[in-house]
Design goal:
The complex is a heterodimer of chains A (about 220) and B (about 400).
Chain A: E1 4-15, E2 18-29, E3 33-37, H1 44-51, E4 59-64, E5 67-68, H2 74-84, E6 85-89, H3 100-111, H4 116-125, H5 141-153, E7 159-163, H6 171-186, E8 190-194, H7 198-201, E9 206-211, E10 214-220
Parallel strand pairs in A: 3-8, 3-9, 6-7, 7-8
Antiparallel strand pairs in A: 1-2, 1-4, 4-5, 9-10
Chain B: H1 6-20, H2 22-57, E1 64-68, H3 76-86, E2 91-104, E3 107-114, H4 116-122, E4 127-130, E5 136-138, H5 139-145, E6 152-158, H6 173-184, E7 185-191, E8 194-197, E9 205-209, H7 210-217, E10 225-230, H8 234-247, E11 251-255, H9 257-299, H10 301-309, H11 314-351, H12 362-383, H13 390-395
Parallel strand pairs in B: 3-9, 5-8
Antiparallel strand pairs in B: 1-10, 1-11, 2-3, 2-10, 4-8, 5-9, 6-7
The chains are: A alpha/beta (about 220), B alpha+beta (about 400).
Bound molecules: adenosine-5'-triphosphate (ATP) and magnesium ion.
Magnesium ion binds near residues 45 and 163 of chain A.
Chain lengths: ~220, ~400
């Protein structure tokens, strides 16, 4: 039985009168590949922000690697995020004045120690070694997203989180990213990905569907 | 860079941001550079004004009159002692005067023997018809004697040490006259080189070379007074006077108060003005740096949010922005120093007709001041980093 890496217990997030998340219960094991789907406004981003220590729940608790993060202050959330979470964004969010390899090194810099060799290896794994010295503006969307994945993985996080990571990519690049996820999954990385795209959602081992802040379906897709 | 170094990477990020975003930062650097230009220019002028203005004021005549104490006269040794004491770099002019009564057409006049070159330096404002040279005749005398440029006139007088004694009683009038001419009296024909108009007492004097006068009256150098034009403000002048009194007790210095006081007043006002403008410029620079940094933080909200999402602590992100501010301050300040010198040089050349020296100390001082200003002006903008919430900022489409 693999270890429980994440647990949400009766988690709600309330914005004014709006319940963006309502009494969510969810547990994820280490090495799981989970996709979160659902209509717009159903609370997907809200949920992934809670898991990624970017926000705290209004009620309930989020237990990440045995630590309840719902009571932590901003500074320790930052620390936990740095040590345990790798983030991928729909808009990539690369730093425009740094090259691909430097963008990866930024994550190392805030985590511990920049190490160019290691950063180059990470880029090599996503097939971008040749483009390491290019600025983001000189890279295609798919290449930028691969830099973003390399950056998310560089500090060996316990969970890789993506909010619509393929939302800005064409089919070909989407395929490349999904292949990378598949390989990471086989290497044992825990992956949680929010997506609108069934092609991306269906390859995951498990899929949950959100509607109005509630989990309405939880599908085990592994055979 | 193998096993990396955090400091190196910090510098890489900060300089990368500046270099690759250079077009965005030109305005900020320009603002700082202009501020630094005006500041270093004004400071240069500020320190140069006393010197410049001092020289300017020195064209209004002697500001220190040195008299002998008691009945004694001033010898050449004393004169050179005085010169050494004051220091030749501070002396604009130093003219000794020896006054002698002579007769022209049986009428008494006073002739002043002086160093004409030094007298000219003391009193460049004298209006001379003709030119400075041996001899000058006061306008009043020229009028009474009806002298024109180039005319000659005869002076007569009694030699030094001889009494203009009453004629010997046991000698005939003719014999007396002969003896006078031979022994007691002198006479010489002088040529009018220039006619002096000053609107003052000088118009009633004849000026000639002091050495020639000495020779004529058969005596060594003995001055009645020394007029000095010295580069000094009221305080320095009184210090110099005290020093003279102490070290050359046979002399009695007197500062010409009226001149030095008005010099100090003008100087004080000018320096206050320069100081005021400098403060205003610093404030304006600060405001523009503040605005630029504010815009920079706003423009880079996403980048800052991203860094925080990657786990950067506030103080780390803030230190990067401060680092950029410091670098901007250094670049702007350094370019400002040189532009400022150029600016001060032009001002000085136009206003005082004279160049200035480059103050090397201004380089570190200006850079330091502008780094300090940039950092101070960045405090509020950079603190905005703490309000940037990564989840909210990064969600935006
Ligand atoms: N900071 C906030 N303040 C107020 N309401 C918010 C805030 N963030 C999200 N919401 C609301 O919470 C609900 C869920 O938002 P969320 O962003 O999680 O949706 P989503 O499932 O990610 O949608 P999409 O697919 O469009 O990205 C929405 O109704 C949204 O308007
Ligand atoms: Mg969303």
């Amino acid at each position: 039985m693999s270890k429980k890496i994440l647990e949400l217990k009766d988690v709600s997030k309330i914005y004014g009168s709006l319940k963006a998340l309502a009494d969510i219960n969810l547990s994820v094991n280490a090495g799981d590949w989970l996709s979160i789907m659902g209509p717009s406004g159903s609370g997907k981003t809200t949920m992934i922000n809670l898991i990624g220590c970017m926000d705290t729940p209004s009620t309930g608790s989020v237990i990440l690697d045995g630590v309840d993060i719902s009571k932590e202050n901003a500074a320790s959330l930052t620390r936990i995020r740095r040590d345990k979470i790798g983030l991928i964004f729909q808009q990539f969010h690369l730093i425009s004045y740094l090259t691909a390899v430097e963008n990866v090194m930024v994550a190392q810099y805030y985590h511990s120690m920049p190490d160019e060799e290691e950063a180059m290896e990470a880029l090599e794994k996503v097939g971008l070694k040749e483009r390491a010295r290019h600025l983001p503006a000189q890279l295609s969307g798919g290449e930028q997203q691969r830099v973003c994945i390399a950056r998310a993985l560089i500090n060996s996080p316990q969970i890789l989180l993506g909010d619509e990571p393929t939302g800005n990519l064409d089919e070909e690049n989407e395929g490349i990213v999904v292949d990378i996820f598949r390989r990471l999954h086989s290497e044992g990385v825990t992956i949680i990905v929010v997506t609108h795209d069934p092609e991306v959602g269906d390859v995951a081992q498990r899929k949950i569907i959100l509607e109005h802040g509630k989990i309405v379906d939880d599908i085990n897709q592994s055979l | 860079m193998r096993k990396g170094n955090r400091k190196t990477f910090y510098l890489k990020m900060v300089s990368g941001s500046l270099i690759r975003r250079a077009s965005r930062l030109i305005i900020a650097v320009l603002a700082i550079a202009i501020g630094a230009t005006i500041l270093s220019g004004l400071v240069t002028i500020y320190y140069d004004i006393p010197e410049q203005l001092g020289r300017e004021f020195r064209s209004y005549g002697a500001n220190l009159i040195v008299l002998p104490r008691g009945d004694a006269k001033i010898t050449r040794e004393t004169l050179s002692k005085l010169k050494n004491l004051i220091g030749s770099n501070k002396i604009v002019g130093m003219a000794p005067y020896r006054y002698q009564t002579v007769k022209i057409n049986e009428q008494p006049y006073i002739i002043a023997g002086t160093d004409l070159e030094q007298a000219e330096k003391n009193s460049p404002f004298w209006y001379i018809e003709g030119e400075w040279g041996n001899s000058l005749v006061g306008h009043e005398i020229a009028e009474t004697l009806n002298l024109k440029l180039g005319d000659s006139f005869m002076i007569q007088g009694v030699k030094y040490g001889e009494q203009a004694e009453a004629s010997g009683q046991n000698l005939s009038a003719a014999e007396n006259q002969k003896r006078d001419l031979a022994r007691q009296n002198f006479h010489k024909s002088l040529k009018v080189k220039g006619i002096v108009s000053t609107g003052g007492a000088e118009e009633g004097f004849i000026f000639t070379d002091i050495d020639e006068l000495d020779e004529l009256i058969g005596d060594t150098f003995r001055a009645d007074v020394i007029e000095c034009s010295i580069i000094a403000d009221a305080k320095e002048l009184s210090d110099i006077s005290k020093k003279i009194e102490k070290e050359i007790p046979e002399l009695q210095p007197r500062a010409v108060r009226r001149l030095t006081q008005s010099q100090d007043i003008v100087l004080g006002k000018l320096q206050a003005l320069v100081l005021l403008v400098t403060v205003v410029v610093l404030i304006i620079t600060m405001i523009s740096v503040y605005t630029t940094m504010m815009a920079m933080v706003a423009e880079r909200r996403r980048e800052i949010a991203l860094k925080k999402a990657l786990g950067a602590e506030n103080k780390l992100v803030m230190s990067e922005l401060f680092g950029e501010g410091v670098l901007l301050g250094i670049i702007g300040g350094a370019s400002g120093v040189f532009l400022g010198f150029e600016f001060a040089m032009r001002v000085s050349l136009n206003v005082f007709g004279r160049g200035i020296n480059f103050q090397w100390a201004l380089i570190p001082i200006t850079i330091f001041i502008f780094v300090a200003i940039t950092v101070a002006a960045s405090i509020i903008p950079v603190r905005k980093v703490m309000d940037i919430h990564p989840a909210i900022v990064l969600k935006g489409e």
